[in-house]
Design goal:
By secondary structure, the protein is an all-alpha fold. It has one domain. It has helices spanning about 5-15, 20-50, 60-65, 70-80, 100-120, 125-170, 175-200, 210-235, 235-255, 270-290, 305-315, 335-395; strands at about 120-125, 255-260. The longest helix has about 60 residues, at about 335-395. The protein is elongated and about 135 Å long. The N and C termini lie far apart (about 95 Å).
């Protein structure tokens, strides 16, 4: 029998909003994201155009910009539920995915850049690699942490909106596939104004429509991994680390590449290289899920429906089905089962310990009673001996 995910069961149990309020939060979040982003867009565009010394990649503007989805998510949750719970603050099963979310973006980036270096579309900068190694030796772990902290902070701002609120709410009203596509499109369109402006300064040789198209394809494909991680781990943090790792991988390999006019058509998230690699990776991921008996074409699991009704909807009776039902995707199901088994084992162990302690206590009580009987028997023997001695004296 199919089971709702732990997050959905939790939502059912603590009186959280159902499908209607999920739709309300979805609409309010989009509205607030637009309202919060608009003045940042305006200030950014004015500053870049009116202040020649202001770079298009100004860190202060980017830091504020990346936190507009996060601010919208926090405001939405406070307005609708007057609470900040349910945004994935907990650690969940993050530890199971940390290594993968750190390494995978670099593997994907190497799959893009290695053919570019081999084909001559771009040149590997050995001097940049030597400089990076020298810098790391000089600055150590502290310097590296100083570089990673802003990436993680910016990623947290975005992911708090996209995966903290948007993904869980959409997953209550539609399938994981549609959730990933919608989230990916919102995520992409939100970047469009700033990306279009930045491309004028940094990638002027590539048509803007081409870069935005490649960016959208890449982001929508990656959105499947982010959505799966968010629901599977029941935590926001794997998506935050994955987002930061994706940005870091692109920055590092771009810095190690001497570009040519053609390189810009393939590199970074605005090029065809990452769009193609992301599509291929999504195809492999989809096949892997099917091999595990899971699927991205899962049915909707609304939080307002009883779990028994959800199970019947996900698994209709065999006599009414002419083909085997495709197994549905239950986020964090295997982890939940393992946790339940572990809890059951701990409970059984505790019961066995209590039983053993009770047996020891009963044994101690029996020993005490035996000792008391021996003591009373000894007292009777002493009295008998005294009586015998007294009789002997009288005789």
């Amino acid at each position: 029998m199919a089971r709702a995910s732990p997050e959905i069961r939790k939502l059912q149990g603590d009186g959280s909003p159902g499908e209607a309020e999920a739709r309300r939060e979805f609409r309010l979040f989009l509205l607030l994201t637009a309202l919060f982003s608009a003045p940042v867009y305006g200030a950014y565009i004015l500053a870049v155009n009116l202040l020649p010394e202001m770079p298009a990649g100004n860190f202060q503007f980017i830091a504020v910009f990346t936190w507009t989805p996060g601010a919208a998510a926090l405001a939405t949750r406070l307005i609708v539920r007057r609470s900040l719970r349910g945004l994935g603050w907990g650690w969940g099963t993050t530890h199971l995915y940390l290594a993968g979310v750190i390494v995978l973006p670099f593997l994907l980036a190497f799959c893009v850049y290695l053919p570019i270096w081999a084909s001559g579309l771009g040149t590997f900068r050995q001097n940049s690699l030597a400089d990076a190694v020298s810098w790391l030796r000089w600055n150590g772990i502290g310097g590296l942490a100083g570089l990673l902290a802003p990436l993680l902070a910016a990623s947290l701002g975005e992911e708090l909106g996209w995966r903290g609120l948007l993904t869980p709410q959409l997953s209550k009203i539609t399938s994981l596939t549609k959730t990933s596509v919608i989230t990916g499109l919102v995520w992409s369109v939100w970047h469009f104004p700033v990306i279009a402006l930045g491309l004028v300064y940094y990638r002027s040789g590539v048509p803007t429509w081409y870069s935005l198209l490649c960016f959208t394809i890449t982001v929508v494909c990656l959105s499947f991994f982010f959505s799966w991680l968010r629901l599977r781990s029941a935590s926001l943090w794997p998506a935050v680390v994955l987002h930061a790792s994706c940005n870091a991988a692109q920055y590092v390999l771009a810095a190690l590449t001497k570009e040519t006019p053609l390189t810009e058509y393939f590199t970074l998230q605005y090029g065809a290289g990452f769009a193609i690699a992301s599509c291929l990776l999504l195809g492999l991921f989809w096949k892997r899920l099917q091999a595990m008996g899971l699927t991205l074409r899962d049915t909707c699991l609304p939080a307002a429906a009883p779990s028994s009704a959800l199970a019947e909807r996900s698994n209709p009776p065999a006599e009414h089905s002419t083909t085997p039902a495709e197994p549905s995707f239950s986020p964090a199901e295997s982890s939940a089962e393992e946790d339940e088994r572990s809890a059951a084992e701990v409970e059984r162990s505790a019961e066995e310990d209590e039983h053993s302690a009770a047996e020891v206590e009963r044994s101690a009580e029996e020993d005490e009673r035996s000792a008391a009987q021996v003591e009373r028997s000894a007292e009777r023997d002493e009295r008998s001996a005294a009586q015998v001695e007294h009789s002997a004296e009288e005789d």
